[in-house]
Amino acid sequence: MLLKNELLRTRVRLLGSFLGEAISRQSGEDTVHTIETLRKGFIQERREHNAAHKQQLIDLIASLDNQTLKNVIRAFSIYFFLANLTEENYLREQRRAMRAESNQSWEGSFRRTLLECRERNIEPDQIKELIDDLKFIPVFTAHPTEARRRTTMNILQTLYEHTDAMSDYPEGSLAFEQAKQKTAETIDLLWSSDEVRTRKPLVYDEINNGLHYFDASLFTAIPKVYRNTKDAIVEVYPELTDYPLPAFVSFGSWIGGDRDGNPFVTHETTEMAVLMHANTVLRHYQVLIRKLRRELIHSDTIVDIAPDIYARIKDYSQLDQKVFFYNPEDYHNEPYRRLLSIILAKIKATNQHIQSQGTDSEAGKDAYSTPQALLDDLRLIRQSVNTHDQAHGEGLLLDTIRLVKTCGFHLASLDIRQDSGYHGEVIADIFASASNLPDYQSLSETERQQWLTRLLENPGTPLIYSDNLSEQTREQLNLMNSVAKLRKLVGEDTFGSYVISMTNNASQLLEVLLLMRFAGLSGIDNEGHLFAALPVAPLFETIEDLKNIDKIMPTILENPLYRELLEHSGNLQEIMLGYSDSSKDGGIITSAWQLYSAQQTITNIANKYGISTRLFHGRGGSVSRGGGSTHQAIAAQPAGTLNGQIKFTEQGEVLYAKYANPDTAVFELTMGITGALKASSSRFVAQPTQLDSYETLFARLADAGEQQYRALTDNTEGFYKFYSEATPVQEISLLNIGSRPAHRKKGLPSKSTIRAIPWVFGWSLARFTLPAWYGVGSALDSVKKDEDLMKEMNKNWPFFSAFISNIEMAFTKSEMSIARAYSQLCEDETLREQIMQAVIDEHELTNAGLNSLLDQESLLANQQDLAHSLEWRNAYLDPINYIQIELLKRMRQKDTAEDKLAVEDPLIRSINALAAGLRNTG
User: CB-based burial of residue 130 (10 Å sphere; 0-12 exposed, 13-18 middle, 19+ buried)?
Assistant: First the structure.
């Protein structure tokens, strides 16, 4: 039988009891009593509202000192850690049970997806073409909305393993009791350690946290994904049994490369990130090679070893002597082990050479020059092993080869991102420092393109007086030199794209190409063609910029020099779409519509100019920032826009949820990859026949939703004063959340100065979740007479059904009673009542509109598992919210830094606890 929800609740209760025992032992019964009073009190309040009883709970919170509040918050926070972990394990077991008992696979599995392709008469050759074209590129970013330490992540990973062991053994057995004891001990350790940072994180910390997921899960998950893909292909498309899988997964990162608005990311930081990446992956390769050396113990006195193995050892004769100086006869009859020992030494030398930034010439002599050279050695061994022991040839050895193909020496390609205005200032400074160039700032857009094109057409760079350059310009040129040096040292895939934020003119792409020229990253090749080492990717973020894609992209594509560059670099243009700022700018519906339309526009432009495109989706964790089911989101892309390649950000706050454990990482990667396959297969699958009428109606929804959203966020005087006072956004920037400032400018936040992540995070913590749904109710109401058509859209149009599903989930997390409690923090009563009335009215419209559209009595009626998960979470979230309100009052009343510091500690823990409980918060 498939697992039942009661089992999940039983397991959560068991871990909760272990936590209670740990708190009792370490912090005393009084702390436990306070926690239990609040826990049971708010559960009762959820079941049966009583105003007097609720006020007693709020008064109790107000009477507690900061240290007691800290303990209470920690208890609820760690409880959510345990519940999330148990839920993750439970879902994994459900998938396993489904496979074992019904021979069925979950939606999004490779098997189910390929069976669906078969049902749609997609032929083997077409599947092969789909997989050959597939490029799936998750890009890790560092925008955490929780302050979880790597130490805590390691403890939770250990705890996951112990709870996993408990589920593998019969209750009452010795093995079960041992796993249970280890679980209790680990929870005790979790309570006695500090789960949040006591200092603001450095960029180094954020890089380190991103790398944690490779060691914790991805090095195990990546080969499993390829293996599962191949197994499903062989089962469903046996005609492709001999088809060699390409390396269709690769990883990117912004951590240490994204300098837009983060003054702490410098060229030295970027160098550090690349070295840390290389060290992580090369150290792991050493672990794998040692395992292979223990495994491939074949003796040439027993089996025939290919002559190529001995020849390769001879090629490395000098290193062979160095490695086996202690005993030249070691592994004399075991040539695989001997060659693997040499490979191990070469990998060590490679890492040593890279970490010295090329200065260790001795290591350089023994180092691999490229990842391809390492692959050649491993493939040579596999080819020989397969002649006499196919099981070992297709086992760990193949997994290692696939991992090297995926990760190289760079692990994850580091994107560089900077704001377009920054580049404009640097170019203006360079022009001012050259005797023969005009005043760049005074040039029109057309004139800028002409001057930049003229400079790019010629070899070399403008002659500039470097002593006159600003610090900003020097830093930019230093960055370019660092990129050039590291690409040569680590490999061509060390860096991904150069992303230009807030792109609104074609000249901004040419500016970056000119800046690359100063480090030899762009230039004129021997055949007279322009080349660029890094692809330049414009990022379109605001609603206006998304609408102007049809003006900006044709302009740059009609530049003969730029077209020539594309033609000689695979004819591929990467374009990034920003979900966060477009949603903050115009609201969730118009953001979704403009992003959908932008993808169609880009596809039409690509077809017109005969180029290929790769869309880079700047998705966040929350729905308002493009979050939600990865599989649904990717599979629901507009027809014909994907063409096999997709790149998307994995925001810091969801990395833990997706990649903390190998099984979950395999699941999440699988869901994304199959989503991409489905979206790409739209070339073979018919789209809804009424698509034109669907799109017309959605455009009307977007217009109505945007009007309502802007009426509140743009046209309500005092709105940002309310936002600043009624949410914790002021405090977020003061706490140890991330290295990047929360605001672009100091002072009262506004739509233009507040960054998208704290914008969403502030509303989420205060339980408004406003960016995820505001305007939806008015939009649905405005087309009420077309509700039958909307119901048809929800049934037949994946884009619309995924959108509505995500909205419903995010909207369910809003809690107006708590939002109203936060609103009391706004001192202006008139302003408070005006905005709250608008929010509550729209909330009621949205609730009614969603239930009517989905033919249900209550939210999530058709998603009972999710409804139950959110329902039990609410009772545990409520006390944290009311504690946070109390702490915000104390924080804002304190005058001295010392007093504020005493409140800051429990306040940051409340943010961490709410992020863990709500999930997808920022």
Answer: buried
Terminal C-alpha separation, the chain:
37
Query: In angstroms, rounded to a whole number, what is the distance separating the alpha carbons of residues 330 and 795?
Result: 67
Examine the pLDDT at 623 and tell me if it is beyond 50: no
Task: State how far the Cα of 103 lies from the Cα of 108, in Å rounded to an integer.
Answer: 15
Which pLDDT score, from 0 to 100, does residue 622 have?
44
* pLDDT per position as a tens digit, 776-814: 999 999 999 999 999 999 999 989 998 999 999 999 999
Q: Are 675 and 108 in contact (CB under 8 A)?
A: yes
Q: Which residues pair with 647 in a beta bridge?
A: 137, 616
The first and second tokens of residue 677, run together, are 């396959």
Q: What is the pLDDT of residues 493-549, one digit of tens each?
A: 999 999 999 999 999 999 999 999 999 999 998 888 899 999 999 999 888 999 999
Specify the pairing of strand 536-540 against strand 572-578.
parallel
Over residues 304-313, the mean pLDDT reads: 97
**β-strand pairing of 135-140 with 252-253:** parallel
**710, 544 contact by CB (below 8 A):** no
> What are the backbone dihedrals phi and psi of residue 639, each rounded to the nearest 5 degrees, phi first?
-55, 135
CA angle (777 as vertex; 774, 782 as ends), nearest 5: 125
> φ, ψ for residue 884 (rounded to 5)?
-65, -40
Instruction: Tell me how far apart the alpha carbons of residues 130 and 124 are, in angstroms, rounded to a whole number.
Output: 10
Q: What is the largest CA-CA distance in the chain?
A: 91
What's the token pair of residue 845?
A: 């419209």
Whole-number Å distance between alpha carbons of 688 and 676? 19
**Residue 715 to residue 751: CA distance in whole angstroms:** 12
Cβ neighbours around 280 below 10 Å, total = 21
Place of tokens 């420092």: 433
Element (H, E) at 95: helix 66-102
What is the C-alpha to C-alpha distance for residues 473 and 433, in angstroms, rounded to an integer? 11
Q: Are strands 495-501 and 413-419 parallel, antiparallel or unpaired?
A: parallel
> Which tokens in the block code for residue 356?
């010295």
Neighbouring-strand partners of residue 434 = 464
Q: Tokens 């009311």 map to which residue?
A: 882
Cα–Cα distance measured from residue 488 to residue 42, given in angstroms and rounded to the nearest whole number: 60
Which residue's entry shows tokens 């009972």?
864
Residue 586: name the closest of 712, 768, 419, 725 by CA. 712
On whether the CB atoms of residues 628 and 809 are closer than 8 A, the answer is: yes
The CA distance from 239 to 124, in Å, is 7
Q: Is residue 654's pLDDT more than 90? A: no
Mean pLDDT across the chain: 91
b (16+ CB within 10 A) / e for 586-604: bbbbbbbbbbbbbbebbbe
Q: Is a pLDDT exceeding 90 seen at residue 712?
A: yes
Strands of 772-908, DSSP E: none
Mean of the pLDDT values across residues 551-564? 95
Q: Please determine, for residue 674, whether its predicted confidence score (pLDDT) is greater than 80.
A: yes
Give Cβ neighbours of residue 837 (< 8 Å, ≥ 6 apart): none
Which segments of 604-657 are extended strands (E)?
612-618, 645-650
Condensed to tens digits (0 to 9), the pLDDT of residues 55-93 reads 999 999 999 999 999 999 999 999 999 998 998 888 888
Helix then strand then coil, in percent of the chain rounded to 5, is 65, 5, 25
Of 189, 180, 119, the closest CA to residue 155 belongs to 189
Strand residues in 249-364 grouped as ranges (E): 252-253
Alpha helices in 394-463 (DSSP H): 396-407, 420-432, 445-457
Neighbours of 877 (CB within 10 A): 23
Which residues are the active-site residues? 143, 584
Measured in whole angstroms, the distance separating CA 31 from the mean position of its chain's CA atoms is 37
Q: What is the DSSP string of 465-480?
A: -GGG--HHHHHHHHHH
Average confidence (pLDDT) over 912-919:
85
Average pLDDT over residues 40-58: 94
